[in-house]
Amino acid sequence: xxxxxxxxxxxxxHARKSTAMARPSPQTDRVVALIELIAxxxxxxxTLADVTRxxxxxxxxxxxxxxxxxSAGWLLRDPVRKxxxxxxxxxxxGRAADDGFPALAFARPAMAELSAAAGANCLVLTIxxxxxxxxxxxxxxxxxxxxxxxxxxxxxxxxxxTAVLAGDDTDRWLAQAPAAHREYYAAALASVRARGYAxxxxxxxxxxxxxxxxxxxxPGLLERLTEELTGDDHYLVQDLExxxxxxxxxxxxAVPGPGAQPVLLLGLTCLPAPLSGARIAELGSRxxxxxxxxxxxxxxxxxxxxxx
Length: 308
Hints:
Blueprint: H1 2-14, H2 26-39, H3 48-55, H4 59-71, E1 75-78, E2 83-86, H5 89-99, H6 103-118, E3 121-127, E4 131-138, E5 153-155, H7 162-165, H8 171-175, H9 182-195, E6 198-201, H10 204-216, H11 219-230, E7 245-246, E8 248-256, E9 262-269, E10 275-276, H12 277-307
Antiparallel strand pairs: 1-2, 3-4, 3-9, 4-5, 6-8, 7-10, 8-9
């Protein structure tokens, strides 16, 4: 836990050295790291010393942050144990964020069923122009460690996002792939269109690094790994062989909203390995079914909203 937050703060403090990254805000990143650190210990809370070690920041700075967040109601301080935990002020913030994604109310029960059936984590991501963001997750107790968390982002560029782009404009996406690999990615997109869902693979060391980057909150590292994977012609499954076994990173599908445009990505990650092609096809069929139900529910919600 300590390494997680220390790395996040260190990355932000040194981000200004990279011209490719946006202008950093170390103070903001420290507050985010602080909230995440306390969220990892929801029942036991943290002491001032825990925060100082976890963030790698001096005691005075940490005390100021803790005091300000406590005054705002975002944290509570136990006067006897001298530990801080998340406060009621964050409940209202969480509810407001939840209200901003009404589709999640339909998705959560289905996500729980998918997670239990697959023995894997189930994620929902919103789709932006350049990236996808995890907005909800159901984690399986026996799923592989690591994986994306709520708030994690995935760049919408090769090799990621094939399910989202399968039925939409792919030119800009393909243009981001090295010229020597565009034919491969075009064929992979055609396979996703025909199959209805994407199956992603990764060599074991690369996948371990991806999970580490996600767990530590290192967008820069994840971006660099994406660049490495872009030149890997074995990341995406094209012809799914039912009798073959695959080390599967994820199985995902787009959920269309009103107008048939993809609004969410539904995915299974941290899957048990290896999986047979037949098992992948079975889980893919479940994803297609659930995506269809969610799409219908979203269309109904949209019509109700317009009527009101």
